[in-house]
Amino acid sequence: MRAAFFDVDGTLTTDRVWRGLMEYFIAHRKRMLTHCFFAAVHYPLWGLARAGLLSQVAFRAQWAAHLPWYFRGFDDDQMKEMTDWVVVNYLRPLFREDTTQLLKDHLAQSDLVVLVSSGPTPLLARIGAEWGVEHVVGTVPAKKDGRFTGGVAGRVCIDETKASFARDYLSARGFKVDYAASYAYGDSTSDLGLLEMAGNPVAVYPDKGLKPIAAARGWRVFPG
């Protein structure tokens, strides 16, 4: 079986998915104290990362791990309301038409399409539903007694864990994937492991970190 792995932020979208999640709470005037606390914790860390005093990997991992703070206490219905709003009101205008067409082409060819992102899996599943993508690999928010706890179940799906999470997900479901024949699409160095996993890596709108790596390795750059 041939697979096609797609990063989301910057690859399928022109903006970050987490912005849409925050916009939901700002628009509905909910969890404003949570928003202020998140900013108070993470903006100083962003400054440290910019100054080289904290690794980008560590900064991104903590950011993704703490996003579930926003929907702590939500049940499934509340989660559905939030993810519907984020996709319909925020993300739809930001989907890249050219890259999503690549995704649709893979679906038309009966390839196994998988979204792989650091985002919360319920939101990724709602994004995937836009094109009929059933399989998503991301950061799993923890639940207890039917409600989200604000924590993460296991590790964050980011940087070097993207590839291992994707492999584990497919193996656990019995998919026998020909990785040498498969495709992977990503826009940044945080997608490097995912791109290296597939025999056909594609750098999509590559950032300044990924662009020289793609050129040195002879990877396809899209568009181009």
Number of helices: 9
Question: What structural class do you assign from the helix and strand content?
Answer: alpha/beta
Percent of sequence in beta strands: 15-25%
**In whole angstroms, how far apart are the ends?**
28 Å
Strands of the widest sheet, in order across it, are 3-2-1-6-7-8
Uncertain ranges = none
**Number of strand elements:** 8
Kindly provide the radius of gyration, computed on alpha-carbon positions and rounded to a whole number of angstroms: 17 Å
Largest sheet: 6 strands, parallel
Silhouette: globular
Mean of residue pLDDT values: 95
What proportion of the residues is helical, as a percent range?
40-55%
What is the chain-wise order of helices and strands?
EHHHHHEHEEEHEHEHE
Protein described:
- This protein is α/β, with parallel strands linked by helices and 224 residues long.
- The protein has 9 helices and 8 strands.
- Helix 9 links the parallel strand 7 and strand 8.
- The protein is globular.
- The mean pLDDT is 95.
In short:
The protein is of the alpha/beta class and 224 residues long. It is 46% helix and 18% strand.
List the defining traits of the structure above.
224 residues; alpha/beta; six-stranded parallel β-sheet; 9 helices; globular
Spell out the blueprint of helices and strands.
Blueprint: E1 3-6, H1 17-27, H2 32-50, H3 56-66, H4 76-91, H5 97-108, E2 112-120, H6 121-129, E3 135-139, E4 141-144, E5 147-152, H7 161-172, E6 183-186, H8 192-197, E7 200-204, H9 210-217, E8 220-222
Parallel strand pairs: 1-2, 1-6, 2-3, 6-7, 7-8
Antiparallel strand pairs: 4-5
